Amino acid sequence: MELWYTEEHTENAKFSIKVKEQLYSEESEFQKIDFFESEEFGTFFTLDGLMMVNEKDEFIYHDMIVHVPMATNPNIKKVLVIGGGDGGTVRELTRYNTIEQIDMVEIDEQVVRACEKYLPITSSKLQDERVNLYFEDGLAFVKNTDNIYDLIIVDSTDPIGPGEGLFTEEFYNNCSKALSEEGILVNQHESPYYERDAHEMKRAHRKIKRLFPISKVYQFHMPTYPSGHWLFGFASKKFDPIKDIKVEQWNSLELKTKYYNTDLHVGCFALPTYVNEMLESA
Ligand code: SAM
Asked: Quick one: 117 and 153 in the same domain?
């Protein structure tokens, strides 16, 4: 009998992946965690029935969440990652020798432990000596921290369940306080395409725009996320990601990336007309 993983992208559209076997299924204190093995996407895991990470397309998401801010300001030394329990964002950050400290705050330790077992492709650098893991709510962490970061990356789940607080004005405000004058905030902006996601994207953008003098949105394609069209927000007190990109400096690092390059960096901020209109009205 064939086994399929099916995810509802809207009430009227579903996305399915043929599954070889289910590797893991547990209910943590925060969410339901499932791992599957598939022919098309390799190992993948879902939280509360939503695709998080798979072996085949994770490079797109993790390249874009890390290299866009790093090429904008190569002097970034202290980084805070909120969420990101699979370790993919940390893995990309550890490729920069210039980064001195990476604090990762993940609410659900069980996600990290399961990824260490089933997804070494993303979790392989969580033991890097620059990485400090905190298992607590990112909302409380940024509120209480005295640390000042050069970069905060919000690698969260959607704004439902434990991730909800990471889309609030209070959270963005505390991120702004925990960032240096040169600081950059990159966060999950959902998709502009389907109505519910588009609404969340507009709400997030509206809140961030009020707090940061530079606030932009960039796009990339994620084959396994609803509609395949995904956005990150880029906000900063100082850096404009297009004008301030350090093309030669970044290229001289000779990091091999499968998705990101400095031409794409500039291009990904050019958005479709309907997305621009949404952002203008946010
Ligand atoms: N790339 C993924 C995506 O967007 O589908 C997200 C990656 S990562 C698995 C998201 C993580 O955020 C989850 O492991 C979840 O436990 C964590 N998370 C959710 N809410 C959080 C919170 N309030 N504080 C810290 N981590 C949180």
From this structure: yes
Range of the domain at 235: 58-280
Q: What is the mean pLDDT of residues 156-172?
A: 89
Indicate if ipTM > 0.85.
yes
Cβ partners under 8 Å of residue 203, min gap 6: 167, 282
Question: Residue 2 C-alpha to ligand 1 middle, in angstroms?
Answer: 30
- Spatial distance between the Cα atoms of 58 and 62, rounded to a whole number of angstroms: 6
Is 155 annotated for ligand binding? Answer: yes
Q: Kindly tell me if the per-residue pLDDT of 240 is higher than 90.
A: yes
Q: Are residues 172 and 223 in the same domain?
A: yes
Question: How distant, in Å, are the alpha carbons of 5, 19, 44, 142, 270 from that of 2?
Answer: 10, 8, 17, 45, 42
- Atom of ligand 1 lying closest to residue 157 CA: 10
Quick check: pTM over 0.90?
Answer: yes
Indicate which residue's Cα is closest to atom 8 of ligand 1.
84
Which ligand 1 atom minimizes the distance to the CA of 115? Answer: 9
CATH of the domain at 147: 3.40.50.150
If DSSP codes are grouped into helix, strand and coil, which group holds residue 51?
Answer: strand
